[in-house]
Design brief:
Structural class: alpha+beta
Largest sheet: 3 strands, mixed
Oligomer: single chain
Radius of gyration: 20 Å
Length: about 230
């Protein structure tokens, strides 16, 4: 959202279509193909046998599922495919992103996970449920009109519980500045984020921030050596 808005603002006279409403979702990052190959390996699938592949779907949260050319289907639960494999293979740009929550969108959708007694998310298959956040008057108007037309059904949600339902998003915002600084000092350029109170969070979680800074710096130096 930030990139799209900035691009359209800087190219306002170039004839690009007008964006009426900005829609986004809570994004935990995009795994690399290396991570996908690891899941396929766990499923004992040769990529050349693939007919189709779904990272999620056919349920909620839905399984990582593949269909082979001979018609056979194999799958892996979301908690294992994403929680144990794919999230360890995120692209660097995703690790540096400080806004996986679409803060510059009009409406944002997120998985509204069921939680245990501690408030941590559960990923057992159940009836799908999404959290809608209207961030602007335009977004709120659209949501209210959709409710009035019975296009969607919804009930109020406790926004304070969002940190427990989406803990990775909270952590990303808290350590984003430390990761960015480490990567920058490691010799790489990083995105700039406006309106994100980064340094306040550094003071809130100093030990974690230091660890993230060191990890990002080392990763940046390794990538720089490889690229040279």
């Amino acid at each position: 959202m930030a990139g799209l808005r900035r691009f359209l603002t800087s190219h306002s006279e170039d004839g690009y279509p007008t964006v009426v409403v900005y829609l986004s979702f809570f994004c935990a990052g995009t795994p690399s193909w290396k991570g996908t190959r690891e899941v396929l390996s766990r499923l004992d699938v040769d990529g050349r046998e693939l007919e189709s592949l779904r990272y999620r779907g056919n349920g909620w949260p839905g399984k990582f599922s593949v269909q082979l050319r001979g018609g056979e289907e194999r799958s892996m639960p979301y908690e294992k495919s994403w929680g144990q494999i794919l999230n360890k293979h995120l692209h660097t740009r995703c690790k540096l992103c400080q806004d996986g929550m679409g803060s510059q969108a009009d409406i944002v959708a997120a998985d509204s996970w069921e939680t245990d007694e501690r408030g941590y998310p559960l990923f057992t298959e159940s009836e799908g449920r999404s959290l809608l956040v209207s961030r602007t008057p335009v977004g709120e108007q659209i949501v209210q009109e959709a409710l009035a037309l019975d296009a969607i059904s919804a009930r109020p949600a406790d926004i304070q519980s969002l940190g427990n339902v989406q803990p990775s998003q909270r952590t990303r915002r808290e350590v984003g500045a430390a990761r960015g600084l480490g990567y920058r000092l490691g010799g790489h350029s990083v995105p700039s984020w406006r309106g994100v109170p980064r340094w306040r969070w550094l003071a809130r979680r100093p030990i974690l921030s230091i660890r993230q800074f060191v990890g990002a710096f080392r990763r940046a130096r390794r990538e720089r050596r490889v690229s040279i």
